Amino acid sequence: MQTKRMTFSSRWLPYALLAPQVLITLVFFVWPASQALWQSMLREDPFGLRSTFVWFRNFERLFADPHYLDAMKTTAIFSVATTFLAMAVSLLFAVMVNRMLRSRDWYTTLLVWPYAVAPAIAGVLWWFMFNTSVGIVPYMLQGFGYDWNHRLDGTDAMILVVIAAAWKQISYNFLFFLAGLQSIPQSLIEAASIDGAGRIKRFWTIVFPLLSPTTFFLMVVNVVYAMFDTFGVIHATTEGGPARATNILVYKVFRDGFVGGNLGSSAAQSVILMAIVIVLTVIQFRWIERRVNY
Prior knowledge:
By secondary structure, the chain is mainly α. The chain has 13 helices and 2 strands. The chain has a domain at 76-182 and 212-293: MetI-like fold, CATH 1.10.3720. Helices cover 69% and strands 2% of the residues. Strands 1-2 form a two-stranded antiparallel ribbon. Helix 2 (57-63) packs across helix 13 and helix 5 packs across helix 7.
């Protein structure tokens, strides 16, 4: 089998083609990350007029702080719940829409619209629906004997932010799941149906294993989304409360740095958060990807 090699008229052309992407990576990722790493080793006043190099003392104080450890636990619960809910609901919608023939495009358009909503706007929408004074959801829950109050109950607040964050991500997951379902050969499903396999058995033994590459990709994307891109949802709904019940790591970085003025601790928290996401991504590609069938 012969392989074709691309040749360029100039030896500098490949470097010129790569230069824009490399420049963007350096400016918007490498440089901010290096600045955060440097600032995490400094102790600065809120006005940035005086700084002291303290090595890893900011990291030591963080891991000795019970509030920071609680924020890590809260982030783990929030990330797992948001990822599971967003992927489960989007997979259900994709399976239902994939069975439609005439109205598939119409339903697809309706389900994609929420992705255009900003995270802060999504948080405000769900905050209004769950508002204890004017929200329709607490009014309906009172009919079942449940007194909803996310301002006082930490569990209610966590449920609210998980629903709001997952709703924002469902459209993105839905598109990929629907594309994955449409790429599965119908002959395999028809053969299993002829052999007597029901809908549930066909889904778990044929459809879902063939969706494993899509599921793995979306799991990585959703974990990163839950840990980084949900700041707007938290800020618009609960602001980390009540009693830090929804104070995830990315929101604690904001509270300690921009509100509390502790810039060194905030930078250290951002470095730890970035390291956690990198480690989780490596673990997913190292161990979970082995069970993916390409």
